[in-house]
Each structure stands twice: as structure tokens, then as C-alpha cells.
Amino acid sequence: MSSTFLGIEIAKRSLAAHQRALDVTGHNIANANTEGYSRQRVKLEATDPDYPASMTSPQMAGQIGTGVTIAEIERVRDIFLDNRIESEMQTSGYWEALYDKLHRIELIYNEPSDSSIRNLLNEFWQSLQELANNPEELKIREIVRQRGISLAEGIQHTYKQLLGLRNNINDEVVDLVNQMNDYGGEIAQLNGQIKKVENEGRNPNDLLDKRELLLEKLSRLASIKIERSDPDDFKVSVGGKVFVQRDHFHPLATMKDMKNDKMAKIYWPEIGDEVFFTNGEVKALLDARDTFVNDYHIARLDEYTIFLIDSFNELHRAGFGLRGSTKIDFFEPFQTLDEDRIFKVTGSKAGYVHDTNMALHDPFDSTCITLAANPSMVGLDPEGAFEINGHIFHYVASEDSLQDVVDRINAADIGVIAHINPARRLVLRATAEATYKNTSIETPYTITSLRDDP
Q1: How far apart are CA 172 and CA 210, in angstroms?
Q2: Residue 101 included in any domain
Q3: In terms of domains, do 401 and 358 share one?
Q4: pLDDT at 406 over 90
Q5: Where are the beta strands (DSSP E) in 97-214?
Q6: pLDDT digit string, tens, across residues 171-191
Q7: What residue numbers bound the domain in which 237 lies?
């Protein structure tokens, strides 16, 4: 026969369970605006009945229930959706950060505007056209001079802004690496706390929410891989190497990359390997800093400016002033660190390249001379290689044109810009931040001629 107080005990258990359920509901409402919070719910189950099955159990219609209890308080969370969110956060972080940097580049060029490079160039060409019609007019000559100064200052201003943007992005890279380390340290600490609560048989719901929020923030910064399959070995990897494992944390570090203008390089200090990112904000900043800002804009602005200076000065030196002066540069070329301003590949004979796309040597074409070595003037062998700044260039004179040689030199990115000047000769010039290691192009002999007969 059951106790007379069984009904009271059942009521007490029901009140306690539902009071705790109301507490959980209040907790959910209180955290409705808490970042990263997951709704919790109470899982109820019946308590063990009286009189378990045994030889001494009384004969009755069925077991007598003893009420209700809370089995667990669980989070309403979907691991599949968590994985998808973290994956999309990486992509979203990459494109949003890259868009921001590209927008800043767009603002630097400020097109169209009166101060843009394109407008300054147009004004410069217009002044030259007016000067061509009135070459002796002093006012027009002064206008040409002033617009040339404005053009140079406009290019310099744009160049400095691009350099400043690159340096700012580099500072952001360092800041994001520090953020990643902060997140990694917190995740490792939470892993230890979560494990202690789980060992007590309870669900560390709020701690798990904090960890998931940190993982979302971390996934926005970098391409990470999260392994949750083994609860005793929770692991986060970055670039294929372990970043956090259980309560152990392996921090990232930055160092100046001497091969990349002393920009920050991210590496693992414990093993010395560089960290490779495939997605996230850090990857976007690295791409913006080293590819979009440097390669696509700073380097190309360098090339354009050098070509403009060399080509315009070449023509200007061939002209005459009002008093007969000649061989005077209009723009003052910049100096490189160790060598002269400009290097030309010229020969002892007068001659020009009539077709820069023609093969360097064609025995069946009388307009091409054979470029071969001889004691008085060293030229090109029928095939071979030459070296600039430690980079080897191979050629076949019967197949490669002068333009092919120019394209290969420019594509090599070795601190040298090659172009064909108005006199149809090959011109080599060091970039503003590079130094020449070799002042000549070399095969087994020094090349001094790349041309055909006039």
C-alpha cells in the first residue's frame, strides 16, 4: 500500500520541476538581446515508479508513478547550422573587408574630379597642343611648365596615399592577428571550464554559447576548421595546423618580411612556419595589401610614371629652346639607391628597330641583321640566355621579338622596368624602391645591341 503522503510528494516534485522550467523561461527572456545566446529548454521525464519489478512486488493493476523531474536543460542549437554559419562568416568577412579596401583605393584616385591624374594629364596635353601652335609664346610655355608640375605633384600625392593605405592595411593585419590570439586564448580557457562542468554530468549551456560566439568571430577573421566529433578533443585549426586543442592554445605571431617591404608576415613562433590563409578578413587584407594595392596600383603607377618620364624626356631632349638649348630633360628623373637613373641597351652602329614584333634574327629577311658576338661589338647569339638582377632570361633569336624580351623582363618583377623608347630602342630602368645588382645584361658576353638595320 502506497504512503498517504505520495500525493503531496508528487505535487512537490511537479512544483519544483515547473518552477525550474519557469526560471529557464525567465532566463531566456532576460537574454533575448544577448549576443550569441541560445534559447534553452527544460526536458522533463517521469521519476521512477514505486514497487519496481521483483518477487515481492504487490499484486496491482500497474506501477504507481511518483511524479516528474528535470532530465536536463539543453540548448536549442543545430550543429549543422553552426557549421554552415561559420563557413559563410569566413566568406562574408573576406569580401566585406576586400570591398572596403577597394573602395578606399577608388577614393584615392577620386575619378572623375579636377584633381585626378586623368584630368591633370588632359590639361597637360592641352597645354602642349597650345604650345605646338604658339611655340614662342612665353605665357603658354609657363602654363606647360606649371601643368607639368601639377601633374608630377598629383602623381606623387596619389602614390603617397597608396603607400599610406598599404601601411594602414599592414597595421590592421597585426591588429587582427592579436584579436585571433585573444579569441584563441579565451576558447582554450572555456574548453577547460566546459570539461569540468560536463564531468559533473551537467550541460554548460552558457559556456558553450560563449565558445560558439568566439568561434563565429574567429571564423570571420580566418579560415578555420572546427572538430567537434570527439567531446574530449575539441580542436580548432588554422591553415592546416592546430590553433586550439582542448585547453591548449598555440598563438600566432608577426614579423617583418624583408622580402616584402618589411610588411608583416604571420607565422607560427613554435615551429617557425608561415601561416597560410584561404579565407576571412586576414586573407582579404593580405590580398589587398600585397596584390591589389601594391601589385595592381603602386607597381603599375611606378611603371606608368617611369615610362612617362623617359618617353617625354627623350622627345624633349631632341628639341630646341628659344635660345638653341637642347638635350634638356623636362621631368627630373628620380635617383635609385645605388646606380644611375637609366640604362640603355645600345650598339656601336646607328640603327633602329623598325618592327618590335619581328624576330631578333631572321636569315630569310634582309631587313634583319644577324645578332652574333664579335670582338668589336658583342650582340646576341642565335639562342641563349642573359641575366638581370639574378634572373635568367632565355631567348631564341629566330623566334623571339624585341617585344617578347620586353614582356619577359616586365613579367619577372625583378625591380627593372623595360620598354621601347620613341627611338625604337630597348630601355631598362630600376624601379623607385629597387637597386640594380647588374648594370648590364649578360650572356657569355655583354649584350650591347638589340636592333635591326635601318
Answers
A1: 25
A2: yes
A3: yes
A4: no
A5: none
A6: 999 999 999 999 999 999 999
A7: 82-293
